[in-house]
Amino acid sequence: MELDLSPRLPKKVSGGDGGSYFAWCPEELPMLRDGNIGAAKLALEKYGLALPRYSDSSKVAYVLQGSGTVGIVLPEKEEKVIEIKKGDSIALPFGVVTWWFNNADTELVILFLGETHKGHKAGQFTDFYLTGSNGIFTGFSTEFVGRAWDLDETTVKKLVGSQTGNGIVKVDASLKMPSPRKGDREGFVLNCLEAPLDVDIKDGGRVVVLNTKNLPLVGEVGFGADLVRIDGHSMCSPGFSCDSALQVTYIVGGSGRVQVVGADGKRVLETHVKAGALFIVPRFFVVSKIADSDGLSWFSIVTTPDPIFTHLAGKTSVWKALSPEVLQAAFKVAPEVEKTFRSKRTSDAIFFPPPN
Known about the structure:
356 residues, mainly beta, seven-stranded antiparallel β-sheet, 7 helices, 23 strands
């Protein structure tokens, strides 16, 4: 069966007045199932509330648009109430309970990427809601809930049955939701648009990497992430993950061309991508991107907490490390051709500005 790596857009799964939930489907993007990867987006309108829930998968959340508030409760910990804005990344380990709220006029849009190898369905997140028409306690009998909460039957019925919304609701503007607390962001959130750059190539591109050093919870999640932004007509060096990790890439903005090459030198993907598309690069496959005039930016997870990449062009490429004689023999070229090849890209690393 031929490998289908074509980028896909998500489909709406649920929604109402408060917002919508979208997900990428393993049936349309088989690499999700094959790689045990989940991908989804949450879009909240003003006063939209994503009801408290936990998931069967660890995730990284990235705020694509807008601002709002998230509540996070780690197992046996106090609730953290955190203000979030565009560019924020949040690591969400197993067992964490979250709620999301938008009190701004602009739509709040959040991307979720994660692993599903411990989930109920390969390639798909399953959320368990604490309240609402599909909440956990709607499944328990009134007796069990009453005993658990030490409440009478009438009160139990009010608590369990009053919220008829499902997953996402719109709250009344008069209801005062919790205010973000100073200090709660520390250790939970990293803004990729404001964080120190791990790579900065003039007229080429910039990278911010999420790892255990700048966001410790990444260690509990089990995979790292990065935000890459390349300038118009710039190129991202061909490269691969050398620690058997999958690369899951969501196009945040701009547009450009992508090529992926796999085993036996076969080009398995050649496509044009734009904002909103998601694709997955298999283990050890080599990927390269060239931006259109408006540049290209993407947010990726790599299925290891501290990923290592090998690049096949630029001053840090493996070519620069190999002996001249090996290159000459491997390419079957004359010494002067090998010297010309080695003399190029001596200062550029990872990103290459457009030719003059």
